[in-house]
Amino acid sequence: MNHVEHFPLMIANTGKEDHKNLQGVPLQVTSPYDDQLIATVATANATAVELALAQASDVFAHRAAWIPRDQRISILQRMSDLLTEQADGLARGAAQEGGKPLIDSRIEMTRCIDSIRICIDTLRSDTSSPPVMGLNTASKNRTVLMQQEPIGVVVAVSAFNHPLNLIAHQLAPAIAAGCPVIIKPAGDTPLSCFRLVRLFHQAGIPKAYLQCIVPETRTLAETLVTDKRVGFFSFIGSAKVGWHLRSRLAPGTRCALEHGGVAPVIVCQDADLEQALPGLMKGCFYHAGQVCVSVQRIFVHASIARSLASQMVHKAKVLVVGDPMSDRTEVGPLIRSTEVDRVDLWVKEAVAGGAQLLCGGDKLDFHCYAPTILFDPPYDASVSTREVFGPVVCIYPFTDVEAAIAEANSLQVAFQASVYSSDINTALGIARQLDASAVMINDHTAFRVDWMPFAGLKHSGLGVGGIPYTIHDMQIEKMIVIHSDAIN
Predict the structure, then answer these.
(1) Is 258 among the residues known to form the active site?
(2) Shared-domain flag, residues 374 and 299
(3) Domain of 427: which CATH number?
(4) Quick check: is 477 catalytic?
(5) Is residue 403 classed exposed, middle or buried when 0-12, 13-18 and 19+ CB atoms within 10 A define those classes?
(6) Hey, which of 15, 61, 179, 375 has its CA 20 to 30 A from 230?
(7) Contact partners, residue 323, CB within 8 Å, separation at least 6
């Protein structure tokens, strides 16, 4: 029998004897591909949640012992080095527990390391601009100093689909800002988070500054998030959960919410399809569509719609679907078997409503779903109005671009979008009309680098993600006004 690793509680100043009184029923973590038991994780009971909050709050209250900027930079640099040394093992672990193909998990690992380095760069260059004094009699003989301070205890709740880089986007900015942080990873993919937290401790972050727990119940998780000692709440996950938790936050708690979208693409008549195809295929089927800005709705001029659809079908049929641990696999499993059933139900509903199934539409072995392309589904179908989070894309022919833009903007979600055109004026004009926080021209909707702003609008989120923006949100700018007759 293979040894199954156990991950104990990661609460500061506790030992094995303490853990007996702090943990609930262990969580079993299984592979989404073959259901193999990978590891068990200790869950935290109510006493453990209170202890974690109390310790994080205590270290924040002790201002004299806040970690200075140079030490935070050193910790992050050591973390970058440790991640580089262990990159392949971490990527393999993430692929095993999350189902993202190994080739993509390795890329995610590279981004994870870069996210740490962006934190270092931000700390080295980020400054505040003080207001100018001496402009009138009231401000005469005064000057201003601006200081950046941590906002308080950060509680972060993460999602399953990028178990390395999402954790980096929540933990590293908190550490860079000087905030104590408690992170709750997704129950489907907690192992990568525990591994990263262990490495952060090895890099030198005090354990009370970084704790990782999986509450044994949803009620306890909500208790953690809504506690009055929390200064900032970082959430990545479903809109239903995110908006609910935001409504329950204690007065004064700031937050950032990152949900999902139903990303639209406008493909104009003059688009270069040969140039567009690789990006569209990646945007549709990367991580089996389990990406919050995955390409889902493609509005294509009717004169080229069938040609684009045919070329996409040809490429979709040769994608390698299967074991995420294989270097050949391009599309892995969905995170749970219930998600496979849901996606299949939505596809069948669309077909029953008049959509043409061009390829896919099949449940495969090992919780995989065949890459699926639907042509002209009803605009009110689930695949047209809700985030599929599966390897499904819809193609809609249009003759009136204004009508296509109106349909692209018709939902209560808005995140990233894209336009394909050979005419820059056409592309910029459409980009201006699209309801999105970011519009990619001649690129797919899932494009992202970790230093750029990343923001869901309307139901898709609140606040701005991206490393420098998150560090800014997790700090306050304290203004100190100096009054002296020696100041002109």
Answers:
(1) yes
(2) yes
(3) 3.40.309.10
(4) no
(5) exposed
(6) 15
(7) 33, 329, 332, 366
Q: Are both 172 and 82 inside the same structural domain?
A: yes
Q: Which residue segment(s) compose the domain that 410 sits in?
A: 263-450
Looking at residue 381, its amino acid is A
User: How far is Cα 221 from Cα 77, in angstroms, rounded to an integer?
Assistant: 31
Comparing C-alpha atoms, which of 128, 122, 111 is closest to residue 73?
122
Per annotation, catalytic residue among 108, 216, 258, 387: 258
**For 70-118, where are the E strands, in sequence order?**
none
Closest C-alpha to 9, from 70, 52, 59, 63 = 52
Cβ atoms within 10 Å of 136's Cβ, excluding its own? 7
The string of pLDDT tens digits covering residues 338-392 is: 999 999 999 999 999 999 999 999 999 999 999 999 999 999 999 999 999 999 9
228-243: pLDDT as tens digits: 999 999 999 999 999 9
119, 292, 368, 394: the catalytic one is 292
Whether 254 and 342 share a structural domain = no
- CA dihedral angle for residue 442, residue 447, residue 451, residue 453, rounded to 10 degrees: 80
Rg of the chain taking only CA atoms, in angstroms: 24
> What does DSSP assign to residue 376?
S
pTM of the model: 0.94
Is 38 in contact with 29 (CB distance < 8 Å)? Answer: yes
